[in-house]
């Protein structure tokens, strides 16, 4: 049910001709209220796409009644003209929704815009605006899945989630299969809830959720120009959860979507959890996990079913985390192939034939821990990213 | 002529059975003096191989009369026993050289040891020590090339260099085809000179040379546990160059070897120079160059002959360098495909069919510049590193 699982939301996904494949490429999510609260987290990349710059302003305004999303073009590195295109999209959407049977009266400043696809090219605006009008006519309570399909790029399947609270619900959709890296949200994601929640509660819940989910997946170390995670609240349930309840539900939804992203990462044959334990701080654990997740030699070894713990230790050695080189243990799929920085159990005991891999690194430097999720580096990754322009 | 081009040096390369291929795997370089000065630069990885820990101590002692190098095993992550193996190698080499016709009398503390190959496995010591004895018997003024061959791992060709001074010479050999990343020397390299030079002059020349050569190549962002660059001086020419002359020659030799390393990087189909200009500082230029060099999406795009400047800009955006996103220009092979952060000249004008690629990034933030050299990310890289354990 995706973003339309909570009450107060309608959505649509249509083919507007932005993708040469003819697949759906424009999605619309509308919040019918009664509330229109919003929180957002955006890419940490200093080169931000026009829709990111626009939507950051909109979120600062505190009210979002509609989100327009398109695949087939990122509208990034498109200069002032690209920003005008985003502004025109919001204006057109606001005017068309206000004049439609959508029973809404709203301004452009209440319309968030997200784009994904090739960087550096202008969007075909007539096709996009025509798609917006078609999407408005198709808005429905069943539109969650079509909307999730319309934002796919190299994704092989749509990503949706539903988490039930007590009388209220969080729903969501996301896209992303490459250019996934932490230090931010790593893709487009819209989360919705019919809970009653003020802007501070929404913001706190979303930031806490992103920190331990989207910020801890890393498919290829590459940080996108367009990453956006939005949380919209309609208040339609009439139920106001505690901040802890809201945070837990939003985190569960974000975790579910983050795992779907890593599972569908470009060309991946392995889904890898890097558990760093015994760290002196959570930051140390995250730094070590990311260094291992971004190491091409570790990633290619795992693609080749090789439990190459030496490469893992070499990656750990590039960090500033507290540890002693002769005090680190490493397990691959529960076999402790390295103890005290040297060979331990026989590496031939490690079974890497399955898709799921767990690397456990014990730094023996404290009591903190963190998990980073990543995938392997395969021939298919090279193929997709050398043959397909993003 | 490699390391034996300068007077005062003999070398050998032999097959000791460390490599299953039967190829040469033990090299020996001997400095017959009259001087025995040395300088060294080592990996910045905190997980250092036993030979690195040993050789750092030896270099601190200020005198090196012999360097033993082996491929077929890195002796990294091998614990205290691995360190004892390195120590035993130095002891054995010192004793055998002192007892041989090599006309040398030296202690283990004057023998540097370098290893490369698989991490995490002990070396077969009887085979290695037997190889050392064979190498001693084979020492000659023509041994430079055999020595360079004996340190190859996934290298497809030996790397040697000779730079002539006025009455003196710098020679060198290096190995390395993967796990090449800056923040250090990135491979094994022995440089030799018959110049007369004190330890401070050698150290200053070597550090200055590494900073702008080995530290500015980055094949795969992966920092090795074993990187070592040594500079040995025999003084046999009787000529004492100025510090500037020595630095210039050592830098030229290091630059030549660094370019050979990048040219032979694992699976590479492109040799890429990233010129960052208009930077507010040299550090900024280096940071931007490295971020682009390490970006898998840029590297796969170039493998696919795609002048994807959007991915380049996205990589620049992850840095802390001074620049404005709407003030950056990017040229690929002299075609300015991006001006002021947006599309400019037609990307179809870019010819990427050749092996050499130049990316020029103008930050328009100052007058400093730096070049980082890298290569593309290919199917062959994935194949070599998933099928071959290092």
UniProtKB/TrEMBL annotation, chains A, B:
UniProt signal peptide: none
InterPro entries for the chain: Arg_biosynth_ArgJ (IPR002813), ArgJ-like_dom_sf (IPR016117), ArgJ_beta_C (IPR042195)
Site (Cleavage): 185-186
GO terms, biological process: L-arginine biosynthetic process; ornithine biosynthetic process
Positions bound to substrate: 153, 175, 186, 266, 385, 390
Annotated catalytic residues: 186 (nucleophile)
Lineage top rank: taxon: Bacteria
Family matches, as HAMAP family: ArgJ (MF_01106)
Protein name per the record: Arginine biosynthesis bifunctional protein ArgJ
